[in-house]
Amino acid sequence: MFTKNKLKISNSIWVIFLFFVLIIATQAAASDIQNVGGAISSDSISDQNLAKGGLVYNCGGLNVRSGPGTDNSIIGGLTPGAGVSIIGKEGKWYKIKYNGSTAYVHGDYINTAGSSSTKEESASGSGTVQVSTYLNVRTGPWGDIVGKLYGGANVEITGKTGDWYKIKYNGSTAYVHSDYINKGGSSRTAGNDNSSSNDNSSSGGSASASKIVSCAERYIGSTRFRGPEVDYGNLACAQFVSTALKDAGAVSRVQLGVVGVVADLKSRGWKEVSAPPFKPGDVVTWKTYDRSGDGVKDNDTHIGIMGNDGQAISNSSSQKMPRRHSVYYCPICRVLRQA
Predict the structure, then answer these.
(1) Where residue 53 sits, what CATH number does that domain have?
(2) What is the pTM of this model?
(3) Are residues 216 and 310 in the same domain?
(4) Does one domain contain both 127 and 17?
C-alpha cells in the first residue's frame, strides 16, 4: 500500500516537472521570435529609395508575408522566376508590391535585377526578340504585364533602365528585359549609354573547341555555382555553361537562363546541327522536366557542353556542381556548334 502511494506521488512529481519544462521551453521560443523581430525593427530601412526589381529563385516557391518576419502571417506565395517590385527593405526582408498592396519576402530568395538607381539611359535602335516561346511586355521594370512578344518579333528601342529596354508598344511605351533582345543597328547617344554588353560586336566571339572544353572541365566538382540567384546550385546549368563560354571568349556575359544562352550563341553565328556525331565544345540542351504543367517535358530546360571523351559536362541539380554524364541521359532538344 505504501509502495503504491509512493509510486503515485513520484509520477505526479514527474508530471509537474515536465509541465514546467514545457512552459519554460515555450517561453524561450517565443522570446527568440520576439528578439528576431526586435532586431529587424532596429535595423529598419524601410521606404528608403530602393525602387528596383527582383526574381524569385526559391525552387519550392516563396511565402509572401504581412510583415518582416516569420511570425507574421502568410498572405500568398510566389513561384520560381516570378518578378517582384521592391519598394523597401527591413533587415533581411524586402518590402514589395503585392496584389495592389504591400507585403514582405525574405531577401535570401530574391535575385535583385539591378542597383537602386532607376536612371534612364539613352539608347535607340531596333532589336529582335530571342526566345523560343514569348517575352512578357511590362508597364515598367518588373511592372504589370500588358502584353507578349513572340520569338522573332522586332521592337523599336527608345531607352534603357537598368537591364530593361524601353520600347514602343501598341502606340505607347512599355518595357522588356534586355537579356532576350538581340539589339542591332543601334544609335546610341555618346557618353550616356554605359551598358555595351548587349552589343554583340563589342566583346565575345569565336573560341577554339579545345579552349571551351578546357574552361568547362576546370569547373567539374566545383562549388562555385551555389549562390542564391541559382537556388544554391539547383538551377545553375546556364550559369555554369555561360561562365565557361565567357572564360573561353565565346560570349561576353554570364546568363542565368537556358533560353538566353541559346539566343546569345545564335546571335554570334552558332548553328543548330544534327547529332550524333557530337564534337568537343558543342553546346547541348535537353528536355528534362515539365515547366508548364501540361504533362510534356519542355524544350531547353537543361544545358551543357560536350567534352573530349564523348560525354557531356553540365551542372547536376542533385549534386549541385558540374559533372560528366551521358549525353543521352534525357531527351536532347538541340545541339549548337560554332560555324
Answers:
(1) 2.30.30.40
(2) 0.45
(3) yes
(4) no
Q: Structurally, how many domains does the chain consist of?
A: 4
Residue 192 counted as domain residue: no
Nearest partner of 282 among 323, 241, 329, judged by Cα = 241
Q: Which domain holds residue 333?
A: 209-337
The amino acid at residue 89 is K
Tell me if 202 is assigned to some domain: no
User: For residue 252, is it left (φ>0), alpha (ψ between -120 and 50) or beta?
Assistant: alpha
Task: Encode pLDDT of 198-212 as tens digits.
Answer: 333 334 567 899 999
Domain endpoint, select from 134, 150, 184? 184
Q: What is the pLDDT of residues 56-103, one digit of tens each?
A: 653 446 788 999 988 898 888 776 566 778 888 888 888 988 888 899
CB contact set of 37 (below 8 Å; sequence gap of 6+): 69, 71
